[in-house]
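Example S7 (structure tokens).
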């Protein structure tokens, strides 16, 4: 599982290496006017919340750090990706461990028991979901993504074609 998590997480480095900070922070794309940097920051905040929660025995998704520097500068994001990659490498592989997760589903905070494997699997799918949004933003900005699988879940059928 660790290898898959790290592989998915580090896919963003291909994108980060090819963007200027201006492109990375551009919020001009409708309909949500969010930047690639905002989505990257959100993904990394999610992973950091999990890793911090593993140390404190409670994952709090509501109290994420939301580091604004990660939204603005690709080098800051790359550094965070690399730190999270190392932390995932060193993470205990007891994926059946139950850990409480605090989240807000829309009507206030709830405390839900997850397994470590379950929340890590969720983080992986969550990252891929945001990669798809990042791909949309970059496509709209006219920036090509070199990885043709970026933003696609591994379970997406390979023979799907789009007709205009």
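Recovered sequence:
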């Amino acid at each position: 599982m660790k290898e898959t998590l790290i592989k998915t997480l580090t896919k963003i480095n291909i994108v980060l290496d090819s963007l200027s900070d201006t492109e990375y922070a551009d919020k001009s794309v409708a309909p949500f006017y969010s930047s690639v940097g905002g989505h990257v920051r959100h993904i990394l905040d999610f992973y950091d919340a999990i890793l911090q929660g593993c140390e404190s025995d409670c994952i709090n998704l509501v109290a994420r750090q939301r580091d604004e520097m990660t939204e603005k500068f690709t080098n800051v994001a790359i550094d965070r990706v690399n730190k999270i990659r190392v932390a995932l490498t060193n993470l205990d592989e007891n994926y059946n461990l139950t850990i409480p997760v605090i989240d807000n589903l829309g009507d206030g905070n709830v405390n839900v028991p997850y397994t470590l494997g379950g929340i890590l699997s969720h983080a992986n799918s969550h990252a891929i979901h945001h990669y798809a949004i990042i791909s949309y933003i970059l496509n709209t900005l006219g920036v090509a993504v070199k990885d043709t699988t970026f933003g696609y879940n591994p379970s997406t059928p390979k023979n799907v074609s789009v007709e205009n």
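Notes on this example. The first strand starts at residue 59 and ends at 60.
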